[in-house]
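FORM 7B - TANDEM STRUCTURE REPORT

SECTION 1: FIRST PROTEIN
SEQUENCE AND TOKENS:
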Amino acid sequence: MSNNLRIAFRFLTARKRSMLMSLAGIIFGVGFFIVTQAQTSGFEQFFIKTILGTNGAIRIEDKFQQTMFAIAAEGHDAGASKFEVAADRSARKYIKGVEDPSLIMEALRRFKNVSGLSEVVEGGVIADSSFKNEAARVYGIRLEDHLAVSDLALQITRGSLEDFRRSQQGLLVGSKLAERLQLRVGDSLIMQSNDERRRYRVACIYETGVGDIDRIRIYMHLGEARSLLKRTSGASFIQVALFDRDRAPQDAVQMSDVLRHGAQSWQDREVSWLNAFSALQISAALTVSTIILISGLGMFNTLAMLVIEKTKEIAILRSMGYSRRDISQIFLWLGAIVLTIGTLGGWVLGASVTYAVSKWPIHITGIFTAETFQVHWSIMHYVVATLSAAVVVMTAAVIPARRAARLEPGDIIRGTSQ
């Protein structure tokens, strides 16, 4: 241990109460910063997992054709303006649906990041039970393909997927819709589309946690959906699962360019909710950081008073040959000691409270359903909290350190030091 560090530890005990208050502020500031970030990012990650497990990473839908204006824009050289590029994308004529899903899926399988594909035929129906009727949306799927691009197998709350596999007349009904129609597994349900009325049987009831989906969506076999909706060919969209979900925007652009179909990534679909989560994280970080800032101001005041109280000791040290740099280092060591103990204590507090919160029961419904607080463990929360504390604490230590370094032994003895 260096002499400067040893002296810093001696000075640290000179104002115990003030130092402990500042230290406690740093511990609580770092700890609560970690907890709030773990919670906000936890709910964001849970929302993303729910969305990906329901609607997939990318959707391929609506073939497009370039208009004459867009074709003319494509003829420009590489130096075309942003306006011309934007005009090229906006001047497209879209044809609803996917005309040749087999061909598109064959091309999609060549993308290295694609882990699964599911052809879906969608249409509106009236679902009529013995209790009442409700407007619903039919999703015709091949079950095995759709299980590869969603978490449907994990979302079944009643019934068995094996019953759905065996029966072409089987249905997978959302929990909210089943509740509104008073349906149970095995009940009959009449589906009406245009002039077509057919009777089906509820094989399973599922719950995604997304109210808007559970309230309206019914899954059925692809062939039955084509027959009911009178869609003999084509598909409404193709749902795509990816190995790396974060590459969805780049893959969507490439797929759109290659396939001449619209391709929308999950980030584009849910941009409003993702922006809301980001704003919430920033707001929570700024709010909790005020605790660290106030603690830093308290520490600045403590170190400033310590300089005044230790002027005689500083004069003795200077007369013994300590340089201005040595005196400055002593007070910077004081800040570093408080920072180190404070961040380590904050890490322990943050991890403990985060774990306790993750076990706390809570019932949330709306954009997703959760039974406990969701937390996301990330080393970056600890790094950012530490950097925030380091900036505040070391800034608070620099000014008193520079003031102590400017003190001259002669001025202290004469009583003229500033």
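SECTION 2: SECOND PROTEIN
SEQUENCE AND TOKENS:
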Amino acid sequence: MPIDLTGRVAVVTGAGNGLGRAHAIALARHGARVVVLDLQPGQADSAVEEIRRAGGEALACIASVMDYPAIEAIAARVLRDWGRVDILVNNAGILRDKTFAKMSVEDFRLVVEVHLMGAVHCTKSVWGAMRTQKFGRIIMTSSSSGLWGNFGQSNYGAAKMALVGLMQTLGLEGEKHGIHVNALAPTAATQMTRGILTEQQLRELAPERVSPAIVFLASDQAPNRAIVCAGAGSFSRANVTMTAGAFLGDDEDAAERLAEQFTAISTRDGDFVLHSGLEQSTHEITRRRGSGCR
């Protein structure tokens, strides 16, 4: 069955070019009305015109995701004019790459502010409306740099992994209101990757090859609290898992036993995905009681 987003309203941040533009066009192609939110008026208008030429409906809005009052005003405008907001794609971002030793605290803070707090601002601005209408699809843009690290990207990696934590908790809080929150870890040729990848790699990693994941995560069939990896037309799922581990006790030589058995407790055989952070404590208490300790 084709995914039909007719009647849905989507907001895509950083949608003037690159991944955001590809996402906005893909959502519009599937029937959604799209708010193209970007800092650059020319780029936002260009994306809107492309959507309209293809028969879609789009609106350009100019603001920084760091400006919460401006983001609130845009959300209010969309709700007034189009009556609802169903889909939010938190895509806007920047890079300030340097090794941690050479990175300024200001550059670290700026990247975290744009990626993490920018997503918080946009999500907060539509959260109430989504709760009221009992439907919402929110996509956080994470990264392999957050999930696995990347040399010279401590600020970017920290922000991107923080978005996974935000996604996990909002997914729990929003589920009973019909709000599903997921994360996308994309690999694409954008302004942020030019100069890093070869021309052939850039061609293979066209942003349009990531956007099907956005369409799926925006649909009625979307999962909740999934991390989808996408690039070059390939799609997979990442998970934060916990190994089966072992009960080592808490007496004076527990640290030494942990050192001796660390390889064994690190084995991935039998690892599992926790439903929430609380499950770690219940799992550990159960293991302790099973050992005969209280």
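SECTION 3: OBSERVATIONS ON SECOND PROTEIN
Strands lie at 9-13, 33-38, 58-62, 87-90, 136-141, 179-187, 227-231, 234-238, 241-242, 272-273.
Residues 105-133 form the longest helix (29 residues).

SECTION 4: SIGNATURE
Preparer initials: ____
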